[in-house]
Amino acid sequence: QTQAAKIGTKILPKQLASEIAIKISETDKNNKKEARIEKVDAIIVDDDKSFVNSLLLFAFNDDDIVDEYYNPEHFLKNVNKYPKDTKIFLDNNYATSELKGLDIAKELHERGYTQLYLLSGEAFSNAEIPSYLTVIGKNDIERLRNL
After folding, report:
1. What is the pLDDT of residue 115?
2. Do residues 85 and 57 lie in contact, with contact meaning Cβ atoms separated by under 8 Å?
3. What is the reported pLDDT for 136?
4. Are 128 and 98 in contact (CB under 8 A)?
5. Phi-psi region of 41 (alpha: psi -120 to 50; beta: other; left: phi over 0)
6. Which end of the chain has fewer CB atoms surrounding its CB within 10 Å, N or C?
7. Rounded Cα–Cα distance for residues 75 and 64 (Å)
8. What does each C-alpha distance from 95 to 46, 48, 73, 92, 138 come to in angstroms?
């Protein structure tokens, strides 16, 4: 009761507990509370599962811990559990989403993430790519290995 009073939480009598419906909703993507930080070597956000599997086989070591997301919205809902210096590899075009990798990178940068990479087969001009983002060709496995 003391703890509930400190944080301003109301307490229900035991008799009412079975009468109250409890609704559990998804965590807000902008929620700044980080319940548990997950340390991984990298995160890949790409809707092409075969490409992700190839990256895992050829660009990363067997002992690397790599989280994979095939949906950018799902990734954004979970990104707060990762440290700000996690390497994040984004696709630019998602078949399952209207989000673009460039837009996601901007949002991540604004949240404080520092190691942002765009994996793309597209050619970009220097003016299109912000300074906080590194573009790597999808076929440049050697460059990925050396990061």
Report:
1. 97
2. no
3. 94
4. no
5. alpha
6. N
7. 19
8. 10, 9, 12, 10, 16
Among residues 89, 92, 146, the alpha carbon closest in space to that of 124 is found at: 92
User: What CA–CA distance (Å, rounded) separates 79 from 30?
Assistant: 10
Q: Which of 95, 111, 117, 116 lies closest to 48 in space, CA to CA?
A: 95
Q: Global pTM?
A: 0.74
- With contact defined as beta carbons under 8 Å apart, do 81 and 37 qualify? yes
Integer angstrom CA distances of residue 140 from 1, 90, 92, 135: 59, 14, 16, 10
Q: What amino acid occupies position 65?
A: I
Q: Which residue has the tokens 């067997």?
A: 62
- 120 bridge partner residues: 137
Query: Residues of the chain whose pLDDT is less than 70?
Result: 6-7, 17, 22-35
Q: Which amino acid is at 34?
A: E
